[in-house]
Design brief:
- This protein has five helices and 18 strands.
- It is an alpha+beta fold.
- A seven-stranded antiparallel sheet has the order 13-12-11-8-16-15-14, covered by helices on one side.
- The N and C termini lie far apart (about 125 Å).
């Protein structure tokens, strides 16, 4: 850079002249792109924004001088001098394919399926055996069976064993069998995943009730039928089949019963011994009400077209299409039909039983009014 004062050439980076000390002024920078004059030491053009600093071209590096990239983590194999190198056969046997994941087997507890006694395997935890222990008191001696794993305690009670205690009283086993007294056979059955006699009985009762409900619903909807009875005590019409024949059935109907109540009012005058006169009057009041009276006893027959009662005094033939309503009772039914003001009651049918099979289970239950009502209504729906 040339000094304007003395004309001395100074280095490019000098700010003052090295000869006279005059402040050096740099010439304006000319933009190579648009030709605009920019202040000295400008890095970018004020007009177009292009960089005014000369860029140095990067030096090309040869393959021989290129610096190799190192991984972030380096793994070093360290040989153990104490151990001997494995043989070729052992290395091939222990070789693991890196592409195949190695699965770790999970060990889970499987309940026993054998015939171990409940004394040999605690029914509460299935992990330890029961240890007999005797506790002597002042007046009595208590024999217990205890599990050291879960704390289950069983006390002998007249040949049976009562489940008295356990560490975890919130467990399902305690909620299910806590303070219950069962036989050794039942505890052994429970140990191997079974149930007690009481639970088995409740399950059978529940299954029987469900089967009965299903049977009655099928009869009522007309999708289920009772067995056809051969040679019924009536003459069947064309296309008619009998499904119910019950003997000893009572026919009842309401009858009007009149009751008269009276009373005496007035004085009584005694004339002599054993002789007296009543000076008053007698009044009476009569009331009438209906009572069920037994009309007859005989045989009740139900077909797919009629409901028939055959008795010694009365024979009733009811067309199923004329029945208005059927009411069920424990021991019979009440029927109301067209052109009949009085309701007809048929009782005593629960002295008979009906058998049915559902889900492979066969049941025999009393022929209650509910079953008879379902059978009658089912036949009406099939007409």
């Amino acid at each position: 850079m040339k000094c304007k004062q003395c004309g001395t050439e100074n280095p490019e980076e000098a700010r003052f002249c090295m000869e006279c000390g005059m402040e050096l002024e740099k010439e304006a920078e000319t933009c190579p792109s648009c030709g605009t004059l920019n202040p000295p030491n400008s890095k970018f053009c004020n007009e177009c924004g292009i960089s005014l600093i000369e860029k140095e071209e990067p030096h090309e590096t040869s393959e021989s001088t290129e610096i190799p990239k190192k991984p972030l983590v380096e793994v070093y194999e360290v040989e153990d001098d104490d151990e001997s190198e494995p043989s070729d056969e052992a290395s091939e046997a222990d070789e693991i394919d890196e592409g195949t994941p190695v699965e770790t087997k999970q060990v889970e507890y499987i309940p026993p399926t054998g015939s171990e006694s409940w004394r040999e395997l605690c029914p509460a935890c299935n992990h330890a055996r029961l240890t007999p222990k005797t506790y002597k008191g002042i007046l009595s001696t208590t024999n217990l069976l205890e599990c050291d794993y879960c704390g289950a305690v069983f006390e002998e009670k007249g040949g049976k064993y009562k489940f008295k205690a356990i560490y975890d009283i919130s467990s399902e086993f305690w909620k299910r069998y806590g303070r219950k007294t069962l036989t050794e056979m039942e505890w052994t059955r429970i140990t191997h995943g079974g149930i007690s006699d009481e639970e088995k009985q409740l399950m059978e009762q529940k299954a029987s009730q469900d089967d009965l409900v299903s049977f009655v619903n099928k009869l009522n909807s007309g999708t289920g039928n009772l067995s056809v009875i051969r040679n019924p005590p009536i003459i069947l019409k064309k296309g008619e089949e009998a499904c119910v024949v019950l003997s000893g059935v009572n026919l009842l109907e309401p009858r009007a019963v009149r009751q008269t109540r009276g009373g005496y009012a007035g004085p009584t005058i005694r004339v002599a011994k054993g002789v007296s006169f009543r000076m008053g009057s007698v009044s009476a009041r009569s009331e009438s009400h209906d009572e069920l009276r037994k009309i007859d006893q005989g045989t009740f027959v139900l077909t797919n077209k009629r409901m028939i009662f055959i008795g010694a005094k009365r024979t009733t033939n009811i067309d199923l299409r004329k029945i208005i309503s059927i009411t069920a009772y424990k021991d019979g039914i009440a029927s109301q039909r067209e052109n009949k003001q009085k309701t007809e009651y048929f009782t005593g049918i629960d002295r008979h039983s009906v058998s049915f099979t559902i889900n492979g289970r066969t049941h025999s239950v009393p022929f209650t009014g509910l079953i008879m009502k379902a059978a009658v209504e089912g036949k009406i729906r099939q007409i």
